[in-house]
Amino acid sequence: xxxxxxxxxxxxxxxxxxxxxxxxxxxxxxxxxxxxxxxxxxxxxxxxxxxxxxxxxxxxxxxxxxxxxxxxxxxxxxxxxxxxxxxxxxxxxxxxxxxxxxxxxxxxxxxxxxxxxxxxxxxxxxxxxxxxxxxxxxxxxxxxxxxxxxxxxxxxxxxxxxxxxxxxxxxxxxxxxxxxxxxxxxxxxxxxxxxxxxxxxxxxxxxxxxxxxxxxxxxxxxxxxxxxxxxxxxxxxxxxxxxxxxxxxxxxxxxxxxxxxxxxxxxxxxxxxxxxxxxxxxxxxxxxxxxxxxxxxxxxxxxxxxxxxxxxxxxxxxxxxxxxxxxxxxxxxxxxxxxxxxxxxxxxxxxxxxxxxxxxxxxxxxx
Length: 367
Ligand code: ACO
Known about the structure:
Elements: H1 7-10, E1 29-32, E2 37-40, E3 43-44, H2 54-62, H3 70-85, H4 88-93, H5 100-110, H6 119-138, H7 152-161, H8 167-179, H9 187-197, H10 202-213, H11 222-232, H12 238-247, H13 265-273, H14 282-301, H15 311-322, H16 329-351
Antiparallel strand pairs: 1-2, 2-3
Helix pairs in contact: 3-6, 5-6, 6-7, 6-16, 7-8, 8-13, 8-15, 8-16, 9-10, 9-16, 10-16, 11-15, 12-14, 13-15, 14-15
The protein binds acetyl coenzyme *A.
Acetyl coenzyme *A binds at residues 221, 251-258, 302, 305, 307, 310-312.
């Protein structure tokens, strides 16, 4: 074998990260990073989030796959929650070393799919149950059974907290779930499509997508955003704290995006959702102050690089204001994104084509 390093290996790999590579055609969502526009199947995100319910937004996304009746969709999600609760004793008996996310994955692996409920509904309806039950188990509380007659957002908060929360809270959560429903061919969605393309079942594709989302480069920023807000503490500390962080070459969490070269439209949709929760929350006012200081400081520090607020900044602020623990931010993101993943799997499977790209071999050659 010839082991001498190939000079080609030393060059930057133009395919690294598949940046700019078109790997699917889709009718589901379009991310226009130059203009800051996100479209879900023909409608702008700001015309869906806060306007239609999570269930209706899911139906809008799924309409090419035979889901067209809004009333039956809401009922089916309720039925799916009831079915999923049968798995909860298994979650209660599982090792205490599992975190909430791993327990949700365990629940999904154990979920029995049958002909009574289409797999996308059974899975999308199950994750809120697994999330709430896993959180209660982790905090030493008894899981609460779902109520099939409630909406996903109302029932999810009820299963977490124990009783029905003020409508502003569930409306804000509903808005969040719609906002994150789908977002082009990100890493977890691509993963779901790859697994779906093998004709593996929907459960396997969603488990794989959850695996991809668990990495800190993908689903993990809102927790650190809240850490940053807590570390700043008071509005008068913001400017100095941010300047020091940028001087140390640190990144400000909740700012910048791989695709958006302007404001992430989801940031404004979530910021508007804060109005549902009243204006007295001092952390919300602190966050707005930090955002203004951060945008000004980023402009000064990186005048040639447009760096604006991304979805994670107001995700953190909104979920915290609803009272959701920061350990649940990524589990909740997975819960809201699951119907989007399911749609991509269905769309990929309609093509009937296995995803199987090529690689360029740059290793040693046999003598
Ligand atoms: N704070 C300070 N500087 C930043 C930030 C930031 N948040 N984001 C980018 N920059 C700077 C980089 O330091 C770099 O500067 P340099 O050229 O002088 O080295 C320049 O901008 C370009 O950075 P890249 O990493 O090449 O840009 P990319 O588009 O790949 O990064 C990313 C996108 C990873 C989101 C980045 O903006 C970041 O780290 N932001 C903070 C973390 C965050 O909020 N993540 C959530 C993103 S939204 C989501 O995932 C759903």
